[in-house]
Structures are given as C-alpha cells and as structure tokens.
Design brief:
This protein is an alpha/beta fold. The protein folds into 2 domains: 268 residues, Ribonuclease Z/Hydroxyacylglutathione hydrolase-like (Metallo-beta-lactamase, Chain A), CATH 3.60.15; 183 residues, Rossmann fold (3-Layer(aba) Sandwich), CATH 3.40.50.10890. The protein is built from 14 helices and 22 strands. The strands form 4 sheets. It has a 7-stranded mixed β-sheet with strand order 6-5-4-3-2-1-22. A 7-stranded mixed β-sheet has the order 7-8-9-10-11-20-21, covered by helices on one side. A hairpin with a 2-residue loop joins β17 and β18. α4 runs antiparallel to α5 and α4 runs antiparallel to α8. The termini are close together. The chain binds zinc ion. The site of zinc ion (ZN) has 4 residues, from loops.
Length: 458
C-alpha cells in the first residue's frame, strides 16, 4: 500500500491523505490549511493526485481542517460520494456553508479595496462558493459505526467512534491482507461529553494525529473545580461573563458544565445567552446524537432534564437580539464565537465589556499565535476591535483543561493494542510530533513523519 500526504504533514491543519491499495485510490479527509498566510496559500495549490481518478473519499469528522477542501474535489471532477457518519454530514454542512459565507464576505471586502486602488484584476475569486459547498454537502453518504463496508474494490473500511466531536470516527482500512488505521482526530479521555475511543487491535500501521502528543491534560475533576471557582468569582464581581466558544463541542461542553453548576446550586441562576446561531444548530445535533455521548449526559435526559439547556438559557438568533445584549451591564453569562476571537459576535461583546473592571472573559479553548484571544491570554492592556482602541480592565481567566483532543497518554493508549504497528505521525506541530516519535522509538516502535506531497510504502 502507498500513502501520500496532501496536508497535515508536519503541521496541524489541512488533513488529506491518499491511500493506494490493490489498484484502488481512496482519499481520507480533504481539509483546509488554516493559520499563517503562507500555509493558507496551499489551499489553492495543486493536489498531488487527480480527483477524477479517486475511487472513494472517506471523511473522519466535520471540522474545517478535515472537510474544507471537499468542495474543490467535487469541482475538480470527483464523481463519487463522501462517506461519513450521519452526524459528520450534518456538522460538515454547517461548517462548509459558514466557511463559504466567510470567504464570500472576505472576497467582497478585498475586491472593494482593490477596486479603489485600481487593482481589481489582481484579486482571485474565493476558494469555493456557497453553491460549491452545497454541491459537496449533497455528495455525503451516511455510514454506520462498526459496520464494515467495501469502499472500493478490495478495500474494506470500518468507521469506529473516535470520541473527538459528535460523529467523529477513526477508520480501520483492510486491504492487501494488511490493516491500516487512520486515527482522524482522537478525543480527550477527560471529556464530559464523549466516551474514549476503543483502541484498534492488530493494526499493521497507524496514521496517528499528534496535536497534543507532548502534553498531559488536567483531569476533568480539577477542570470542573477550576471552572466553578472562576465562574463563581466572575459573577460575584458583578459584571458580565463573556465566554468565547467554538460552535462545535466546546459550546455544548460549556452549556453542560453550566447546567451542572446550576443543578448543584454552585452558581446563582443568572441568565445565560447562547449568542451563536451556528452553535445553536450544532447543539441540536448533539441533542439528537445522545447515544454517542457519555452515559452521564444521557442520564440527565432520562430524568427529564436537558444537559445543553441550563436554566435561564436564551438563544439570541437575530442580529437585533444579539445587539440587545450590549445594553446589559452585568450579571449575564454570554457564550459567543469565534472561539479565538478572530471575528463573529464575540467581538461586539468584548468591545462592550473588556473596558469594565467588573466584567470577566473566561477563555476555554486554544488561542493560536496572532489572534485577539492570544493577546488577551498574554496580558495585553489594550486591544483594537473594529478599529477602536479598547482598554482591557476586565479579568481574563484561562481554563486549560477543556480539550477535544487526545493528550500523550490518550495516544499511547490508542496505539497500545497494536504493538506491531508502525506509526505515521501527522496533524501536529513538529515539536509535539518529534517528542512523541522519540519516546515511541525508544520503546522499540517504528515511527515515520510523512512530508507534504511525498509517497511512502506502508
Ligand atoms: Zn477535529
């Protein structure tokens, strides 16, 4: 079998791997590169394979860095289906439409500027349009967990629960008498929403994500204590509590943790606003996907509660309702995106709350270098929002324990059931990857780190 990386090679984003086995060509994921300009430039670059010649495309989960280039495949001549779980199809539909809208807005803004400068002819079109996204969404074909299927002649695939986000899967691919595992993204065993993946046995090779391969997450118990204390102190201060959240998984996790705190009487019954139409839609998918979640979450439902609807939860869907929140001076918990504060409704809430000493911002997710979120974590005393200088007087709290990704121990547990398997590390920064590779090699394991565009025999 031959493996070619078309993304997430020595970097985290852009997941896309071609497997050639028994004369068939099967692609696993086709995601967007995200981050610095040079990296994002790769999205419009040539793929190291002909999309029209693919026999099947398998999709591990709905995050943009795994699905964001699927619309290009369809446009470049791929005629077959995108095989994924039903929940992945629903998440991908939300994510792809949102990405197409953002690209359209971005393109229009760039074009207006270029026109004023007399350079409109230099502006490239968006990577994909809303119509391209729609066409890609229509290609999704749902598959069940744990039910082997013939993805291409001689290539058998089983989707197994990965515990990362709703619908997420790792793939067991059997071809040429060998068993190759694609981890996709694996979940955190400390997740209060998703049960841990059952590790695959008897694999000959594992294409393994390594996002947090050099880290150990805090325990769920400790994270819950920290979250309760931070929210409690923030509410006591009297201002609003702004929680920037990713729409998928983190928003649902925070809603559930707020539900628990209110049910336990640990925090007062203050109003909670979910100010994100996207997170509201994703929350519905979580509610429908109960069977996939931790038994603890299902128990809340069985007792007649709704773990994603803490008391006094309000959904603000229209822009007018969202703007109405700017009038609230204190005592409200506001969840809004984007998670790294690079755009979206959260910017308005930051503009109206950051300068107030009694307000709080509770950061519950990873903040990449160069983002507004990172500036706040790093202690900026003033920031620019919508071209306006805003003083940072609010308290900034960071809760590090919420993560949707496996840590080092999770990854070790995942590969432990296949002691003979070679590891092919992808989806990680070089430092994390190299640390994990060194430890695994020291324990006698064969490890390679595929490079972009290079084909390996596996
Ligand atoms: Zn992911």
């Amino acid at each position: 079998m031959r493996l070619t990386s078309a993304g997430a090679a020595r970097t985290v984003t852009g997941s896309c791997h071609l497997l050639e086995a028994g004369g068939a060509r099967v692609l696993v994921d086709c995601g967007l590169f995200q981050g610095p300009v040079e990296l994002e430039a790769l999205n419009a670059g040539r793929l190291p394979f002909d999309p029209a010649a693919l026999d099947a495309v398998l999709v591990t989960h709905g995050h943009l860095d795994h699905v964001g280039r699927l619309p290009l495949l369809a446009r470049l001549g791929y005629k077959g289906p995108f095989l994924a779980t039903a929940a992945t199809r629903e998440i991908a539909a939300i994510i792809l439409r949102d990405a197409a809208e953002l690209q359209r807005e971005d393109h229009e803004r760039t074009l207006r500027k270029a026109m004023r400068a007399g350079r409109a002819h230099e502006v490239q079109g968006p990577l994909f349009t809303v119509d391209d996204a729609q066409a890609a969404i229509a290609r999704f074909q749902p598959v069940a967990y744990d039910a082997p299927l013939e993805a291409a002649p001689g290539v058998r695939v089983t989707f197994r629960r990965a515990g990362h986000i709703i619908g997420s899967a790792y793939l067991v691919v059997e071809a040429e008498g060998r068993r190759l595992v694609f981890s996709g993204d694996l979940g955190n065993r400390q997740s209060s929403l998703h049960p841990t993946a059952d590790p695959p046995a008897g694999a000959s090779a594992i294409v393994l994500e390594s996002t947090y391969a050099d880290r150990t997450h805090r325990s769920l118990e400790d994270t819950r204590v920290e979250f309760a204390s931070v929210i409690g102190r923030a509410l006591e201060a009297g201002g609003n509590v702004v929680i920037p959240t990713f729409a998928v998984e983190r928003a649902q996790q925070v809603l559930y943790e707020l539900y628990r705190l209110k049910a336990l009487g640990a925090i007062p019954d203050v109003p909670v606003y979910l100010d994100s139409p996207m997170a509201t839609r994703v929350t519905r998918i979580y509610r429908d996907g109960l069977a996939e979640l931790q038994p603890e979450v299902a128990t809340v439902f069985a007792r007649g509660g709704d773990p994603f609807t803490p008391p006094s939860l309000r959904f603000t869907l229209s822009t007018e309702e969202s703007k109405g929140l700017n009038e609230i001076q204190g005592g409200a918990v506001i969840l809004a995106g984007s998670g790294m504060m690079t755009g979206g409704r959260v910017l308005h809430h930051l503009k109206h709350n950051l300068w107030r000493p009694q307000a709080s911002v509770v950061i519950v997710g990873y903040q990449a270098k160069g983002t507004l979120g990172r500036a706040l974590v790093d202690g900026a005393t003033s920031v620019r929002i919508f071209g306006e200088e805003i003083a940072v007087r609010a308290s900034i709290h960071t809760i590090g324990g919420f993560s949707a990704h496996a840590d080092r121990a999770d990854l070790e547990a995942f590969v432990a059931a296949s002691p003979e398997a070679e590891l092919l590390l992808v989806h990680g920064d070089p430092e994390a990857m190299d640390a994990f590779a060194a430890a695994q090699r020291a324990a006698g394991r064969r490890v390679r780190c595929p490079e972009l565009g290079v084909t390996l025999d596996v």
